[in-house]
Amino acid sequence: MHRNIARVPGMTSSQENGRTSGVTGFVYRTVRGVTRVVGGGVDAALALVSPALADVPSPRARGAIVAALNGVLGDHLEETNNPLATKMQLRSATQALSLSREALAKYSSS
């Protein structure tokens, strides 16, 4: 995207892969490399966390931990088919809420 924004309209580029070169290209390559390493570290940490969550005695506490993980890492969890990935939904305590007008009206009146 950066290369496309920076290019002069009407001029063709010799860069076939669509990536920037020079200092900008170096920075983007470095960011992609660091992101790959961090992603691998996150996967390794999640592999340790997942079995430990089975030992959390309270379903409410486990749900809160999994919700926090999904709030921060939800896209990554979903992309890697991690068993900790959850679908986005509204919840009250440990119960999923139906997103219908009737169900929400019933919930708000109780």
Describe this structure in words.
The chain has 110 residues and is mainly α. The protein has one domain (2-7, 16-109). The chain contains four helices and two strands, in the order αααββα. A two-stranded antiparallel sheet has the order 1-2. β1 (91-92) and β2 form a beta hairpin. The longest helix has 32 residues, at 22-53. It is flat, with a radius of gyration of 22 Å. The termini are far apart. The mean pLDDT is 78.
Spatial sequence of strands, sheet with the most strands = 1-2
How many domain regions?
1
Average per-residue pLDDT, rounded, comes to 78
> C-alpha Rg, in Å?
22 Å
Strand-residue proportion: under 5%
Order of helices and strands: HHHEEH
Compact overview of the structure:
Helix content is 61%, strand content 4%. It has 110 residues and is mainly α.
State the main characteristics.
2 strands, 61% helix, mainly alpha, 110 residues, two-stranded antiparallel sheet
